[in-house]
Design goal:
The chain is α/β, with parallel strands linked by helices. 32% of the residues lie in helices and 20% in strands. This is Xylulokinase.
Length: 476
């Protein structure tokens, strides 16, 4: 017996199967690019997602597909997919890095239950209402990415609290804010009813089953947003359990049994279970490192080799804010670059500074969590952007934590698969503790005063250049 998790990410779609004991059995993935038809826009055609799903399914062994009994979903947070009444997209999906709605954030004056970013569904829908009347006329549903995918497979038009609460159109518990919708002039009927992440959200259609090589009629879980799915799949179960995920962005999640207090620069959202979580969400980790790698004409193996071959160059700092930043600065107009470059610096020293800048951006987010009253000394580690041992040690040093890698290749996909098993009735809440994956301690913090001084310089330089890119500025 197998349960399939589909993780619909920003730059790739990943599949994971787990067996009846929660052990991962097979994985497959297909990458794709974000479209930027105009500066500041970030879109993907849903046809791209569908092709990636079919191609990834074809990579799974036939025996794995034959044994799948339920499917769960994990999806990139924020953004929005506008569809007609049958779930067919009426325009490309708008994604979380999109900044076209930056000038429209005045509809969310402080204080808000959570920080509001231009790539959230609320600001994006306000932009649609003002700029694309033809899209408004054609729209019946405003869905989150994973919800569109479930509907495309034959599932119900529903969403879950973990996705709804991150739209800037709902309260922290995920209940739609009808007063906000009225103020924006957005139809209430566009928004799907709520269901638990682990509830059944329909069954796989005959047509989708043929496309994926699966059995028709198997259960589709409602699913959850990718960050809470990764926390769930990584075994976070108790108050204070914490996780670092790195990919295009970086998230630090701390589980809470009750609703956390509001704190500037941090998010408090619903988990995939009935818990809550605090989150520091940093936009520029993998996306910035990938840009630097390309600019310096590195293959990844060479980038790691040269970056960690020598000590850090004194006085060289990289601010990684190429797409603005959320935690802790809440500045979508923030920008980055190297400061302190000299003729004697090499590609390797520039690449190392980029790695260190990414680590420091994560530390700034973690510091905000610590200031909120949560002590974090250990982090579980998940995500494809944190597998190199040298990078892991830099993260442990910069964050001043022990890192324990989760022993599974795709925590979000695993979490989605387990949600499928819950929705199908194979597991119950009492089984979850026994399903937590093993972890391996991979790095611990070292006392490095020079690194601490470079982090202080990093914070000072960001504060100095922040005035060049105020949060109210228009996107590039």
């Amino acid at each position: 017996m197998r349960f399939l998790g589909i993780d619909l990410g920003t730059g790739s779609l990943k599949l994971s199967t787990v067996d009846e004991a929660g052990r991962e059995r097979a994985t497959a993935s297909v990458a794709y690019a974000i479209a930027t038809p105009h500066p500041g826009w970030a879109e993907t055609s849903v046809d791209t997602w569908w092709r990636a799903l079919c191609d990834a399914a074809a990579k799974l062994p036939a025996a794995e597909r034959d044994d799948v009994r339920a499917i769960g979903f994990s999806g990139q947070m924020h953004g929005v997919v506008l569809t007609d009444g049958h779930g067919r997209a009426v325009r490309p999906a708008m994604l979380w890095p999109d900044t076209r709605a930056l000038s429209l954030l005045d509809a969310w004056p402080d204080p808000q239950p959570n920080p509001v970013a231009p790539g959230m569904a609320g600001p994006l829908l306000r932009w649609i209402m003002l700029n694309e009347p033809h899209t408004v006329d054609a729209t019946r549903w405003a869905l989150q990415p994973k919800d569109w995918l479930r509907v495309a497979l034959g599932g119900a038009f529903v969403t879950d609290p973990s996705d709804a609460c991150a739209t800037a159109l709902a309260d922290p518990a995920g209940v739609w804010d009808h007063a906000m919708l009225d103020r924006l002039g957005v139809p209430h009927a566009w928004f799907a009813p709520l269901a638990p992440s682990y509830a059944s959200g329909g069954v796989l259609s005959d047509e989708a089953a043929r496309a994926l090589g699966l059995r028709a009629g198997i259960t589709l879980a409602t699913g959850a947003a990718d960050t809470p799915c990764a926390a769930f799949g990584s075994g976070l179960a108790n108050d204070g359990d914490a996780l670092l995920t790195t990919g295009s962005g970086g998230q630090i999640v701390v589980l809470a049994t009750g609703e956390p207090a509001a704190a500037r620069g941090l998010h408090r959202y619903r988990a995939a279970t009935d818990h809550w979580y605090r989150m520091a969400a940093m936009q520029n980790v993998g996306v910035a490192l990938e840009a630097v790698r390309g600019w310096l004409s590195y293959a990844w193996t060479d980038a790691y080799r040269d970056a960690f071959a020598d000590d850090a160059a004194p006085g060289l700092t990289f601010l990684p804010y190429l797409t603005g930043e959320r935690s802790p600065w809440l500045n979508p107009s923030a920008r980055g670059g190297w400061l302190g470059l000299a003729l004697g610096h090499s590609r390797g020293t520039m690449m190392r500074a980029a790695f260190e800048g990414g680590a420091f951006s994560l530390r700034a987010g973690l510091d905000a969590i610590r200031r909120s009253g949560v002590e974090v000394t250990t982090l579980r580690l998940a995500g494809g952007g944190s597998v190199d041992a040298r990078w892991r040690q830099m993260l442990a040093d910069a964050l001043d934590v022990e890192l324990h890698a989760v022993d599974c290749p795709d925590a979000a996909g695993r979490g989605a698969a387990i949600l499928g098993g819950l929705a199908g009735g194979h597991w119950h809440a009492s089984d979850l503790a026994s399903l937590a994956p093993a972890t391996t301690r991979v790095a611990g913090p070292r006392d490095d005063r020079a690194l601490a001084a470079r982090y202080a310089r990093f914070l000072d330089l960001y504060a100095r250049v922040e005035d060049w890119f105020p949060a109210s500025a228009a996107p590039d």
